[in-house]
Amino acid sequence: MEQYNPKAVEEKWQKIWKEKKEFEPKGEKNLPKKYVLSMFPYPSGKIHMGHVRNYVLGDVFARYYRKEGKNVLHPIGWDAFGLPAENAAIQRKVHPKEWTYKNIEEMRKELHRLGLSFSEEREFATTDPDYTRWEQEFIIKMYENGLLERRTQKVNWCPSCHTVLANEQVIEGQCWRCDSQVEIRELPGWYILITKYAEELLEDIDKKLKGKWPERVLIMQKNWIGKSVGLKFQFHFTEESWCKLNSKFEGFEVFTTRPDTIFGVTYTALAPEHPIVDYLLENHLLSPEVEEKVRKIRAIPPRERQSREKEGVYLGIDVLHPLTGQKLPVWLANFVLVEYGSGAVMAVPAHDQRDYEFAKKYGLPIKYVIKPIEGELPEDSAYTGDGILVDSGEFTGLDNQTAKEKIIEKMEELGLGSREVNYRLRDWGISRQRYWGTPLPFIICPKCGIVPEKIENLPVTLPDDVEITGEGNPLANHPTWKKVKCPKCGGEAERETDTMDTFVDSSWYFLRYTTDFRKFKNLPFRKEDVEYWMPVDHYIGGIEHAILHLLYARFFTKALRDLGYIQLDEPFDHLLTQGMVLKDGAKMSKSKGNVVPPSEMIEKYGADTVRFFILFAGPPMQEIEWNENGVEGAYRFLNRLWSNAEKVEKSPTKPEIDPSNLTKEEKEARRKVYQAGQRFLDIFQKELYTFNTIIAGIMEAFNALNKLDLNRKEGRKVYTEGYWVLLNLLEPFVPHISHQLSHTLFEGKNLGKVEIDSDALKSEEVLYPVSVNGKKRGEISVPVDASKEEILEKARQRVEKYLTGKEIVREVFVPGRIINFVVKG
RNA sequence: GCGGGAGUGGCGGAACCGGUAGACGCACUGGACUUAGGAUCCAGUGGGCGUAAGCCCGUGGAGGUUCGAGUCCUCUCUCCCGCACCA
User: Fold this and answer.
1) What is the rounded average pLDDT of the residues A71-76?
2) A697: pLDDT confidence band, cut at 50, 70 and 90?
3) A635 in a domain, yes or no?
4) pLDDT confidence tier of residue A825, bands split at 50, 70 and 90
5) Which of A29, A165, A708, A765 sits 20 to 30 Å CA-CA off A811?
């Protein structure tokens, strides 16, 4: 037999699969379906190990389900808008479009080289005008239905990318893409009102995703949405303060999650950017010293304030406590956030750590209104636990949880406040002041205001003749592109020159795949196709998308549902977040110089070896360490698999085996083969996905086969049967070598649904460990049908020396498991 | 600080419902073949003691429950990840 030549084998099968269109989904809608999707890549031009792991995992699922006879949709596409294309344009003077489509070509080739079973007819790039056309329609519909608006507000500005970022894209004050320090600017922009779906997005986490998505992703999303329930109420100014403010402000609103501590309020605090502070400054109502202090605090960016000490100043105005009528000072405090709640708080230093520190610093009174049920109030901090109310008027004596409710009710009854739900989630800013993105299909008319582009004029496409310098917005700088007639009045107007965040593009691509859209051009996707294929059964991707992409995609699905496009609440049924591929304990990156290019590894060992190693190195969720020795090990196994195939007796049918003629070793080998098969099925069906242990089982069975005496006719039959089964099990993991061997040995007839010979799994002998007082002292092998008494007798003999002179207090016999004698003396 | 996850040989990792800890692979050691081997094959490989049979110890640490604990409970240490002045 020839030597194992992975390159030749792999290229051969990749060609066959491509020619036969082996991996296209079938049109028949009565077949049971599985939709397997790995998150689509940004076409940077080169694949990295993270991609390899991502797509190989998806491929394993896809191939498994095809084996099971399912109709499988396993598509690929390109998340192709984005800044790197513009950076390339600046650095290398290539047009973003040219650069992008060239990269797609290259990456498609590299992925193809891995033998991934993708559908080709469903492939597209988000930059295709066919795709942007529908996205623009969705955006217009959202606008018409109050889910999108244009407004001017403070935004995160990345000075390096020259664009605005969504809150989700700012990580610890830095740009998610380039790590630059983000600045706050006031700019007009487009906002998707994702906050309208905050409650549903939160609810469905427990209702629909629990148990099927990794727990930590769900927790991250919950935290991001950040729901809190409490009381909203007004503080009214004292007569004097009201006059001071020229009767412009009655008071201000606060939000608290601790209405039970309302009797402990000793002061109130406003955010530095609060409108009342603005008014005080503008109208010079502060003393020079106070004004200076306020200006100083306001000069520090909110981000930076976090790390600073609590600081503030009394603003010279006072409010009245809504229940006690007590006069309370109004302070400005640097720890109050303008964007949360109403930008003002009631301060309860006794029961809130921040208020406590502030009060201590400025000598403000501290009034305790909750007493712990056990123990004492802390000496030098706030008491934030539960307890009994004291000094709280009619609520004194209640436990604080009950008091929370009662106080809210009371405030509502008196018309002083109301129950309020607050979310941390902000609206999704989708404006990007860049060229290479989907144009926002709106026209700003001096007469009519904002006017959506007419649907029949979609898509709004990008001009090809642009100059990309990195300075300013290329579309805004284009001499003619933005100059249009208003679709409504026909007058001179201007196109919106912002393009969309690329996360919009990736928020619905999985719907597009469901339809053979080259055939059905007049729709973004067919309803019946979406109904059949969605939700995605297995979605596989990196944990870095835990919030960003996954939250946006969930929102988009719900929004499109409410716009009447689909009937679906959640897009992704099961989510698998794969761990990173590390090298020398660190993420592979150019700056660390520890990148292992997949293409080199494939060239050297073949795609099957790379796939095998990645799957064997650890469970999918866990990080794995790239280890060339391990790769060698994988390569060695495939070589052995290849060269030992010559011992197999070629046959288009599985050999018939009569177990009564077999030696103990032969039976054991068969058992291991079918155990591997059983494990294979269990790991898919029980949703464990620990493919590393399937592979270990296959290796174990393979080792047992190779110990057989092949001079015996029965031995050769068992060996052949073993190959028949194991090649089938290996096929999702290492498809090329499996198909090749299967083809030459069995005419490809062994690849199909995995079937288990359950008789082969049974063993005639059972091995029992025998322990005395829980310590293993020996083992016995007994026939499966032996009686309990026979087994115990044999066990007693085996460990006799530990029993003599002792009294057996108890004999523990767990059938099929263990024997334990408890002795005394 | 809050939330989540994890600690098992020299390494990556196995261990179903509490039932032989270390499957499988890497690395290592010895041997075979060989001019040679970094190729391949065979054998060994948690630690300690012992010529051996065997004995003792062992899943971060300390307790506990149990005939029996890597697995369950309490306390504790360490590491990783996420969020972080959200009222």
Assistant:
1) 98
2) very high
3) no
4) low
5) A765
> pLDDT tens digits for A609-630?
999 999 999 999 999 999 999 9
The CA–C1' separation of A54 and B40, in angstroms, is: 34
What is the structure's pLDDT at A300? Answer: 83
Say what the pLDDT of residue A1 is: 64
Q: Which residue is nearest to nucleotide B80 (CA to C1')?
A: A623
**How far from each other are the two terminal CA atoms of chain A, in whole angstroms?**
67
Q: Taking the C1' atom of B41, which residue's CA lies nearest?
A: A640
Residue A532 has pLDDT above 80, yes or no: yes
User: From the CB of residue A466, how many other CB atoms can be counted at a distance below 10 Å?
Assistant: 18
Question: Nucleic chain B: which protein residues 647-686 of A have CB below 7 A from it?
Answer: none
List, in sequence order, every residue forming a beta bridge with A330; answer none if it has no partner.
A268, A317
Is residue A295 domain-shared with residue A150, that is, in the same domain? no
Whether the Cβ atoms of residue A746 and residue A735 lie closer than 8 Å to each other: no
> Per-residue pLDDT for A147 more than 70?
yes
Q: Is the pLDDT of residue A747 over 90?
A: yes
Q: Residues A474, A516: contact at Cβ < 8 Å?
A: no
User: Model confidence over A151-169: pLDDT tens digits?
Assistant: 998 888 888 888 888 877 8
The answer to whether A457 CB is within 7 Å of strand B is no
Percent of chain A at pLDDT > 90 equals: 76
From A422, A457, A481, give the residue that closes a domain: A422
Residue A517 exposure: Cα atoms within 13 Å on the Cβ side: 25
Residue A211 pLDDT: 87
Beta-carbon-side half-sphere exposure of residue A386 (alpha carbons within 13 Å): 8
Q: Do the domain assignments include residue A609? A: no
Residues 380-439 of A with CB under 7 A from strand B: 422, 424
From the CA of A505, how many Å to the C1' of B75? Answer: 51
CATH of the domain at A89: 3.40.50.620
Assess if residue A631 is contained within a domain.
Answer: no
Q: Which of chain A's residues 225-244 bind strand B, using a 7 Å CB cutoff?
A: 226, 228, 230
A375 and A241 in one domain? yes
Do both A150 and A275 map to the same domain? no
Q: Considering only residues 625-644 of chain A, list those whose CB is below 7 Å from strand B.
A: 625, 627, 629-630, 632-634, 636-637, 639-640
* Element of type H or E holding A83: helix A83-92
| Nucleotide minimizing C1' to CA distance for residue A688 | B16
| H helix intervals, A247-385 | 275-282, 288-299, 302-305, 353-362
Cβ A145 to strand B below 7 Å: no
CA of A728 to C1' of B46 (A): 35
Nearest nt (C1') to A629 (CA)?
B26
Q: How confident is the model over A84-107, as pLDDT tens digits?
A: 899 888 888 899 999 999 999 999
Q: How far apart are CA A591 and CA A585, in angstroms?
A: 15
**pLDDT score, position A529:** 96
SS3 content of chain A, % helix, strand, coil (to 5): 40, 20, 40
Q: Is the CB of A256 under 7 A from strand B?
A: yes
pLDDT-derived band of residue A241, with 50, 70 and 90 as boundaries? very high
Task: Give pLDDT tens digits for A450-486.
Answer: 999 999 999 999 999 988 887 888 999 999 999 999 9
Point out the nucleotide closest to A706 (alpha carbon to C1′): B41
Residues in chain A: 825
Residue range A182-200: average pLDDT? 91
* Omega of the bond leading into A474 within 30 degrees of 0 (cis): no
- Per the structure, the complete domain to which residue A380 belongs is given by 228-422
What is the distance in angstroms measured between the alpha-carbon CA of A208 and the sugar C1' of B46? 45
> Mean pLDDT across chain A, nearest whole number?
92
Which residues does A311 contact at the CB level (< 8 Å), separation at least 6? A297, A333, A334
Mark residues 75-114 of chain A whose C-beta is closer than 7 A to nucleic acid strand B.
none
